[in-house]
Amino acid sequence: MARRHRSRGLPLNADINVVSLIDVMMLLMVIFMITAPMMQGGVDVALPQAQARPLEAKSGLVVSIDRAGEIYVDENRFTYPEFRASFKALASRRGQQGIYLRADQGVPYGTVVRVLAVMRAAGVGDVGLVAEPEDVRR
Question: Which domain, by its residues, includes 92?
Answer without folding.
Answer: 49-133
